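Anyone up for a design puzzle?
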């Protein structure tokens, strides 16, 4: 289901909770909402659509990747980036890392550890910040 984008900073500043299999419908809502906002959005966290659960989705260019309970386990090569967000007006500067390693569960709750770089790594970092209640 396509959900409205949350813009309430109080809600967005709260940390998200671990997701379980009961939360799988949230992943579908993220997929639907990202598709509906594709022209202005490349990733979303569950709190952006009203769920305080650790689930994100990232447009990788060839497919959308849902990550459940993602944890960035390694990062290297910091750089300064300027980012926008559907939940906030304007853009802001932040530090990101060119290379990251992420441990996460897929929609079948199978664990993966995967390396990402460049723009996709930047998107993942932005969405993982959302899960921690950090707004950029």
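Challenge accepted. My sequence:
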């Amino acid at each position: 289901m396509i959900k409205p984008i949350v813009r309430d900073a109080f809600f967005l500043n709260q940390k998200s909770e671990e997701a379980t299999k009961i939360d799988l419908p949230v992943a579908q809502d993220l997929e639907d909402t990202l598709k509906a906002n594709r022209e202005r959005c490349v990733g979303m966290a569950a709190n952006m659509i009203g769920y305080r659960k650790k689930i994100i989705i990232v447009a990788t260019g060839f497919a959308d990747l849902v990550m459940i309970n993602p944890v960035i386990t390694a990062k290297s090569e910091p750089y300064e980036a300027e980012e926008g967000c559907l939940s906030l007006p304007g853009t802001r500067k932040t530090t990101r890392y060119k290379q990251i390693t992420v441990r996460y569960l897929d929609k079948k709750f199978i664990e993966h550890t995967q390396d990402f770089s460049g723009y996709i790594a930047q998107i993942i970092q932005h969405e993982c910040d959302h899960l921690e209640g950090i707004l950029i």
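A detail worth pointing out: The chain has a mean pLDDT of 96.
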